[in-house]
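Box 4.2: Ligand-aware structure prediction
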Amino acid sequence: MLKIEHLIKVYEDGTRALDDVSFTVQDGEFLVIIGLSGSGKSTLLRCINRLVEPTSGRILWDGTDITAASLDELRRIRRQIGMIFQQFNLVKRSSVLTNVLSGRLGYVSSWRSLIGQFSREDMQRARRNLERVGIADKANNRADALSGGQQQRVGIARALMQEPRLMLADEPVASLDPSTSHSVLQYLEALNKQDGVTIMCSLHFLSLARAYGTRIIALKDGKLVFEGLPAEIDEDRFKQIYGEDAVRVEIL
Amino acid sequence: MNRKKNPLLAGLLSLFVPGLGQAYLGDRRLGTTFLTAVVVIGGLLVWKNARLLLFVLLAFWLLGAWDAYRRAQGGKTRLAIPFLLAAFLVYAVAWQTTEIAPMKLVKGVGDIKPLVTDILWPIPAAFTRSEVVETARDVMQVPCSDTPPSAEPQPEGKPQIHVSSNCAAIGERITLTGTGFRPNWPGEVWWENPIGQQFFVRQGGQYLRFRTDAQGSFQIETQIPLAVPEDMRNRPQIHHIEVRVHWPEGPWRASQTLELTIAKILETIFLALMATTFGIIVAFPISFLAARNLMSFSPVSLSIYYTTRAILNITRSIEPLIWAIIFVVWVGLGPFAGTMALAVHTIAALGKVFSESIEGIDTGPIEAITATGANRLQTIIYAVVPQIIPPYIAWSVYRWDINVRMSTIIGMVGGGGIGFLLIQWIRLLRYEDAGVAVWAIAIVVSILDYSSSKIRERLV
Ligand SMILES: Nc1ncnc2c1ncn2[C@@H]1O[C@H](COP(=O)(O)OP(=O)(O)O)[C@@H](O)[C@H]1O
Ligand SMILES: [Mg+2]
C-alpha cells in the first residue's frame, strides 16, 4: 500500500507544483492520474521515487517512509519501482539489449557494471522481457532505430528487469498514435492483471483513463480535485478538472 | 530629474573631477564616459607629449563642466561630435604608433618575389641526382720568381688545361685554354691558395664561368686574384688553378632537404599524436568534474566544478607558444618540450569541449537509469558515457589536426618538429628548402583536415 500524506513540492523558482496532496493507492490498483498540462502529474510521480525531492509531506510504502530514506535505502526502494516516460528515455546510441539490461543495475555491483559484465541469468531475464513485449528480434538494434511504440516497449522491458512491485508511468503514450497507445497500455494492463503490479499512470485523454484505470485521481494546479471510479467522472467533474471551456478530447 | 540639483555645483564638480558632475546628476554612464575620455586623452598626452593634445584635454575637461551645468538646468549639450573627434584622435595616434605605411606594401614587392617563387616551386631543392665532375689543374706562381715553375703534366685522354704563363703578378691577366671537356657545357674556374683553400674565382663581382664549344674546348681570360694575406703577397708562392665541368647524371632521388623534411614532419605528426593522447587521457576524467549538470548535486561538488572550470580557463588562456617556451626551459630543446606544451593546452581545450558535450546530453536516460536504483557511477557509465563517446572522438580527432598545425609553430621556439627546420632555413635565406618544408606542412595539414572533417561528419 502506498500512502501519500500532505505532499507539497515547491520548486526553487517558487512554483508550487504540488499543494497538500493526500491519497492512498492499494496494491494491485491501476491508478490513472489526469489533469491539464502543468497540473503537477509528473512532479507527483517523480516525488514517489524521489527523482524530485518533495518539499514536505510523507510517502509511506508498506510503512516505510520513502521521503526519509537514506541514499542506500532509497536505491533499494527504487529498484522495486519501475518507471516509464513520455519520451521513453532510452540511451539512443546503445543497443536495445543494453538498454534493457541497464534496468538491472540496481542489483549489480559497481565494479561489475564498470566492466559491462552482466550475469547469465540477467541476460536470460533480458531476453524473456524483450519477448514479453514482442521485440525479441530487435535486441541488437540501436534503440533509436525503433519506432515510438517499440521504444516504449523497450522502456517497459527495462522496467521489468527490476521485477517491480510498483510501476510509475508518466504519460507513456502521449507521443504515440492511438492504436500504438492501446497496445502499450495493454502491456501495462497485463502487467497489472497477471503479475499484480500496482500501476500509477498519468494520461492525457479521459477515454484512455476510463478504459484502463481501476481508479482515477485528478490534479488541478497542484491540488487533488477528484478521486474516484472512472464512471464517476461526468460532464461537471470534467469541466472542474479541465476548466470551463475545455473542449472534450477523446480518442478511441 | 525629480529633485532640484544645483547647476553651479554640478559644473564645479565636473571641473574638479571630470564626470563627477554628471554622476551627481544621476547619469553615471555619461560621467564614466567623460572620465574615460579625459584619462585616455591625458594618457596620450603624457606618452606622445604633443601640445595639441593638451588643448584637446582642456577642451574636454571644460566641455564636461559645461555639460554638467547645462544638464542641471534641464538643458543639453551636443556631445556626438566632440566624442567622434576624440575617437578620431585615438585612431590617429594608433595609426602612427603601429607605423602603418601602405606604400611599403608596393615598394617591397620586389623583395618578396624570390621568396615567394622559391617557396611556391621548391622542387629543385627536393630532388637531386648524382654529379659527375671533370677537373683539370695547373700550377701558378704568384708573383713570378727567377725560376718560374713549369706546367704540370696533363693526363693523356683526359680533360686538359693550359695557361698562357705559369707565373704572374696579382691582377695580371692570363689566358686559360682547355680541351677534352664535355661539349657545349658550362664550367667554373676555381683557385687554390698555397694552404689548400679553394675559391670560386670572381671577376667583376661575377663568378667566373665559361661554356665549352662543340669539341669540348674553351678559352677564357682571367685576372690573378688576391688569394693570400697581405704579408705573403711579395714572396713568390705556388698556387693552383682548377677548372671544373660538372653535370647531374643518373636517376632523380630525394635530396637531403627532402629527407630531413620528411623525418621532421613525421616527428611533428607523432608529437601531435602524443600530445593529443596525453591530453585526452587527462581531459576525460576532468571533463566530468567540469560538467555542471553532473556536479550540481551538492555544494562540495559544485565547488569542485567551479575550481576545475577556473583552472581549465586559465590554462587555456595561455597560448601554446608560451607553454612551449616554459617547457623548453624546463626539459630542454626538442620534441618532448613541444609534446608537453601541446598536451597541456589540449587538456584545457578538450576539458572544456568535453564537459560541454556532457552538459548538452539528453538527461532523460540519466533520469531513467537513476530511477532503476543504479548508483551515480553506474548512471554515468550507462546513461552519460554512450552519449558522449561520439562527440569525444570527433573533438579528439579535430584536436590532433589542430595540434599538428600548432606544432609547426611550437617548433619555431625549439619545441621540436618541422617548425624548427623551417625557421632555420628561413633565417639562412634558404627559401627553396623552406619551400619544401612549407609544402610538406601544407600537404599533411590538408590531409588531416580532410580526414578529420570526414570522421566528424560520420560521428555527428
Ligand atoms: N524543474 C522545475 N523547476 C521549476 N518548475 C517546474 C519544474 N518542473 C516542473 N515545474 C513546474 O511545476 C508545475 C507542474 O509541472 P509538471 O509536474 O511537469 O506538470 P504536468 O506533468 O502535469 O504537466 C508546472 O507549473 C511546471 O512549470
Ligand atoms: Mg508532465
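In the box above, the bound molecule is magnesium ion. The first helix of chain B runs from residue 7 to 16.
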